[in-house]
Specification:
Layout (H helix, E strand, L loop, with lengths): L1 E4 L9 H12 L1 H39 L9 H40 L1 H6 L5 H34 L12 H6 L2 H21 L2 H22 L7 E4 L11 E9 L4 E3 L9 H4 L3 E9 L4 H31 L6 E4 L1
Antiparallel strand pairs: 1-6, 2-5, 3-4, 3-5
Helix pairs in contact: 1-5, 2-3, 2-5, 3-5, 3-7, 3-8, 5-7, 7-8, 7-10
């Protein structure tokens, strides 16, 4: 493996604006795609929030009014259209961080290192640190702004249908929870920085794309099961008739013994009779997050993701500094 060794040139006063203009020209197709995607999703979410929610709610009122009769006439197409478009737009918003990571690893960083464009920029009065900073700051601003707008619109769209549409997703449905809060914005920023680090490490566009997407998949795989444990849960204890009912994000369920001890997820035998198997059981319990925990969970998970993003930023700049620090421009030294 080789590492470029560069002496950081003294940047010209207008280097930063030139970097921004060059970045916009170089990645103009990606900017157009991102703008088009944000505009299309925003239009779909506004359509969902207004006309489609009203039409679906009216159809459900018709159905509820006549479901006990011999025949029922209602606008089934409005209900199905709302349901389908809700699923598609929610999936699209949740998928944004993965798309951002793929672009950052492949086109933003990996392709320029692979083609030698970055090396040329470093010899044209643009230091590697300024080069990477310009590469990250403007995309981070655009990703944050676009994702935040879509998250806000998704939240408003979901709120418009709450209590009016019988099949509307509850707040604790995980795709709905993620798409309607700042978690998605933080995950998109983390994906951008994961892609940048992957591109710097691998210096190949395809390899950077794959590594960046896998990094975001791994991060989400870790955050998803940890989410219910990021904030203290509420416990509800019931009698021996069964687990008490609740509405929210489940954390744990099980038995309560006569001593007050809790048996999480007990094995109750093939017949499912826990009370016969555990003769000291006096009831059941449930730990969960009610709707009042929506924002604490959102903000705590967002803080965790932003901390990861900060670590990725530090790692990217340290890696670039290590690979480009040297007394002479253009030399390469084996490591």
């Amino acid at each position: 493996m080789t590492a470029l060794t560069l002496a950081a040139p003294a940047p010209a006063p207008a280097a930063a604006p030139r970097q921004v203009r060059w970045l916009l020209r170089l990645h103009r197709p990606a900017l157009y795609v991102w703008t088009g995607l944000v505009v299309a999703l925003a239009a779909a979410l506004l359509w969902l929030r207004g006309p489609l929610t009203d039409a679906s709610a009216a159809a459900w009122r018709q159905y509820d009014a006549c479901r006990m009769g011999d025949s029922c006439l209602y606008d089934q197409d409005a209900i199905l259209l709302y349901k389908d478009l809700y699923q598609y737009t929610t999936f699209a918003v949740v998928a944004l961080p993965f798309l951002v990571a793929a672009w950052a690893g492949a086109a933003l960083i990996g392709r320029e290192l692979e083609s030698g464009t970055a090396r040329l920029a470093w010899t044209q009065a643009v230091s590697p640190v300024r080069w990477l900073a310009a590469k990250l700051v403007l995309p981070a601003a655009l990703v944050t702004a676009g994702t935040a707008v879509l998250v806000l619109l998704h939240r408003l769209m979901w709120s418009a249908g709450e209590g009016r549409i019988d099949t509307a997703k509850p707040w604790h449905d995980i795709p709905t929870f993620v798409a309607g809060g700042p978690i998605t914005v933080a995950l998109a920023l983390t994906g951008l920085l994961a892609g940048a680090l992957a591109g710097l490490l691998l210096r190949r566009s395809l390899a950077g794309l794959v590594a960046a997407v896998m990094a975001v998949v791994g991060l989400w795989t870790a955050v998803r099961p940890a989410l219910p444990h990021l904030w203290p849960a509420v416990t509800r204890v019931g009698d021996v008739s069964g687990v008490p009912s609740y509405s929210g994000i489940a954390v744990d369920e099980g038995l309560v013994t006569a001593t007050g001890a809790r048996l999480s997820d007990p094995y109750c035998g093939p017949d499912g009779d826990c009370l016969a198997r555990y003769d000291d059981a006096v009831g059941f319990y449930a730990e969960y997050h009610p709707v009042s925990h929506y924002w604490p969970l959102q903000l705590t998970a967002t803080a965790v993701l932003l901390a990861v993003a900060a670590l990725l930023t530090v790692a990217a700049f340290r890696l670039l500094h290590r690979r480009t620090t040297a007394p002479a421009i253009g030399k390469e030294t084996a490591v």
